[in-house]
Specification:
- The radius of gyration is 23 Å and the shape is elongated.
- With 389 residues, the chain is α/β, with parallel strands linked by helices.
- β1 and β2 form a beta hairpin.
- Helix content is 40%, strand content 19%.
- It has 2 domains: 269 residues, 3-Layer(aba) Sandwich (Aminopeptidase), CATH 3.40.630.10; 113 residues, Alpha-Beta Plaits, CATH 3.30.70.360.
- Bound molecules: zinc ion (2 copies).
- One zinc ion (ZN) binds next to loops.
Length: 389
């Protein structure tokens, strides 16, 4: 292996105490989407204390930050190491973002020590609110990534994977408007908005059978009426449509709209559909980068698992249309353990979780090194980025 890669690995080992402390701080101070004030400050100071210049509140997002090694001009190519640090309501770091942040810090510090020998630059971008808030989308729209050429992060998970499909996601509110009436004395005067939303729900269920396996539709009724003796005049629900490509997601959404319109027609109610931002795009995968990650995983003795086809969504999907982006995962639990759980949160602090932190930091540092030092890899990455859907 290239000597510099060995040095990068040793550098991460030397930082292990500090990185574990960072992960533990986030674990003990979980903050949900856009409320990550303590996390943002801790991570910014962590980098400032180690030779980075940090801008807080970038892109108009208070809990976002951008850190660059001091004295380094905006060199190209520049790598963005993404740090997520938001937690989940009720289960703290049940998605393990405390590890994501610590992994990116470790990789950035290791690489920054060798930047005088490596062409190019690097930034750490603190990206809040991955869970439902879509912080990366706001930062990308604000132009934060214009000075960067490739973005990377590493997510703890159930499997060791260089990359995986991530499905796109639209979230929307469905409302039905009927007429209230006494449910016993004058039901014939009413238009039942509850029946309309139940019909819509059943139409959507019927639609499921004819969808591709990558599509998902799921939802809840959030308002079902006001009292049992009143014909409900207003009902509402929240739904998600997910699919592996933007075009199929749009297609499924249009069919759901017809399910809703059909229900309204049948009952004689009116309906409204309101999109709720953010919409997550499916990830645009970059195979040359993923192959580089795979080779580095193998060099680190990590067994790459077979993808089991379970899919989530993330705002890195949107980012992957702005610049090549990768999202490898490292297992910290057995495959049957669900994410977004207390067990998963605790695993981030387990021996396996701590080992994954160091492996992840080494993996990203080594991959960053490959990207910055190989013109051929960069050309292949750009080509794949331009060709992908
Ligand atoms: Zn999550
Ligand atoms: Zn996550």
């Amino acid at each position: 292996m290239d000597q510099t890669k060995n040095l990068l690995r040793a550098e991460v080992e030397a930082l292990s105490g500090d990185l574990l402390n960072a992960s533990e701080f986030l674990y003990n101070n979980p903050e949900t989407a856009y409320q990550e004030f303590k996390a943002c400050e801790y991570l910014s100071r962590f980098l400032e204390d180690r030779g980075f210049v940090v801008e807080r509140g970038i892109g108009g997002v208070k809990t976002a930050f951008l850190a660059r090694p001091a004295g380094l001009q905006k060199k190209r190519p520049t790598i963005a190491l993404l740090a997520e640090y938001d937690a989940l309501p009720g289960v703290g770091h049940g998605c393990g973002h405390n590890l994501i942040a610590a992994i990116s810090l470790g990789a950035a510090l290791a690489i920054s020590r060798y930047l005088k020998d490596i062409p190019g630059g690097l930034s750490v971008v603190g990206t809040p609110a991955e869970e439902g808030g879509g912080g990366k989308i706001l930062l990308a729209e604000a132009g934060v990534f214009l000075e960067m050429d490739m973005a990377m992060m590493c997510h703890p998970g159930r499997l060791n994977l260089p990359g995986e499909e991530m499905i796109g996601r639209v979230k929307f509110k469905i409302e039905f408007f009927g007429e209230a009436a006494h449910a016993s004395v004058s039901p014939d005067q009413g238009i039942n908005a509850l029946d309309a939303i139940v019909a819509a729900y059943n139409n959507i269920n019927a639609l499921r059978q004819t969808l591709r396996p990558d599509a998902r539709i799921h939802g809840i009724i959030t308002h079902g009426g006001d009292a049992p003796n009143i014909i409900p005049k207003y009902t509402a629900g929240l739904f998600y449509v997910r699919a592996a490509t933007r075009s199929y997601m749009d297609d499924v959404f249009k069919r759901v709209e017809k399910c809703v319109a059909g229900a309204a027609l049948a009952i004689g109610a009116r309906y409204n559909i309101e999109m709720i931002q953010p919409t997550f795009d499916p990830i645009k995968r970059n195979l040359p980068l993923e192959e580089t990650v795979r080779a580095n995983m193998e060099a680190l003795g990590i067994t790459v698992d077979r993808d089991d086809g379970r899919r989530g969504s993330s705002d890195i999907g949107n980012l992957s249309y702005y610049l090549p982006a990768i999202h490898p995962s490292l297992a910290i639990v057995d495959p049957e353990v669900p994410g977004h759980s207390q067990t998963f949160a605790e695993a981030t602090m387990s021996l396996r979780g701590r080992e994954a932190l160091l492996k992840g930091a080494k993996l990203l540092a080594m991959t960053a090194y490959d990207y910055l030092t190989s013109v051929e890899l960069r050309e292949n990455v750009s080509k794949a980025f331009r060709q992908a859907e």
